[in-house]
Structures are given as structure tokens and as C-alpha cells.
Amino acid sequence: MPRVSQDHLDARRRQILDGARACFARHGYEGATVRRLEEATGLSRGAIFHHFRDKESLFLALAEDDALRMADVVAEQGLVQVMRDLLSAPADREEEHAADWLGTRLEVSRRLRTDQDFRARWAERSEQLTKATRERLLRQREAGNLRDDVDVGVLTSFLELVLEGLVSHLAMGLPADDLEPVLDLVEETVRRHRRVH
């Protein structure tokens, strides 16, 4: 029997994650039945659960995948850039995909509030974004670009809280056309202000 290439396995995993993201966003965690996951991914339950142990593992992998993508942007450009990307829905993220991402993000928030086991499993995975934000802020402080009168942990929490608020705002379908100046203010808030003599 021929062995399946790693590229094929990676492509299949990506197909499952992309289909599952849309399914979870549209139907919520409970409503994303195996039949709906099969329809959304175009694959059988056997193919889906060959890659993921169960529905919760699939959902966590999806949320982790999103967190890792965001952590990569944070490491290079900061958490405010993640927020700007959400507002502009960049070319590599179709509008429907952005809506699915937001729906998944809200579903994560809901499950964190209502499911203690999920909260414990998610805590292990969600640290990447916080760590990337903190490390970026520390580098900015060392470069003299970050205000030094507020603890980096407080600034990290502040930026994460703004992100959560923005996600909620966008997920509710509220207008976002005028939010760029708000993000400018957020960015200005964490910057070091040099005194002019």
C-alpha cells in the first residue's frame, strides 16, 4: 500500500480545519454535528477523526491554529497590527473567512465561560499569543519605543482586552469604518513619549 506524503496529510488537515472553522462559526460548538462537519469539509467522519481524536480536539486545533497565526503577526508587527488586519480583512483572508474566524473566536469565549474542562485544555494553548505580545513589548521597551512607567504585564493585558473588545464589536456586525483612529490611540497609549526640551 503506497504511503501518503506529508504534503498530502498537511493539505487534508488544512481542508478539515478550514471546513470546520466555517461549520463551528455557523452552528456553534454543539450545533457542529459530525454530519455538518462532514458536509463542511467534504470528507467522511473517518477521514476527519483520523486527523483529530474528537470534536473538541478539532475545535482546539482550530483555535490554536488561529492563535499561532496571530502570534506570528504579533512577533513581527505587534498586537495592534493583528487588530488592523481584522479591520481591513486582508487579501489572504476572504470576508467570509474573517467572519468564520470571528465566529470561532466568540465560540472559544463562550466555551471558556461554560466548560471547565475546555478552559483547562485551552489555557495550555492560549499562552502563545500572550507570550508573543509580552516578548514584542519587552523588545520595544529595550529599543526605547515603549513607555516605561507601566509594567509590561499590564500593557499586555490592556492590548489583549482591546483585542477581545474589537472581536466582539466585529462579531456583532457593528460598523468598523471609524475604528482606525481608535487603534492609533491604543498604539499611542503604549508608546514612550519623549520630552521635548
TrEMBL record:
Molecular function GO terms recorded: DNA binding
UniProt-listed SUPFAM superfamilies: Homeodomain-like, Tetracyclin repressor-like, C-terminal domain
Keywords: DNA-binding, Transcription, Transcription regulation
Superkingdom in the source lineage: Bacteria
Matching Pfam families: TetR_N
Span of domain HTH tetR-type: 10-70
DNA-binding residues: 33-52
InterPro entries in the record: DNA-bd_HTH_TetR-type_CS (IPR023772), Homeodomain-like_sf (IPR009057), HTH_TetR (IPR001647), Tet_transcr_reg_TetR-rel_C_sf (IPR036271)
PANTHER family per UniProt: HTH-TYPE TRANSCRIPTIONAL REPRESSOR NEMR, TRANSCRIPTIONAL REGULATORY PROTEIN
Name listed for the protein in its UniProt record: TetR/AcrR family transcriptional regulator
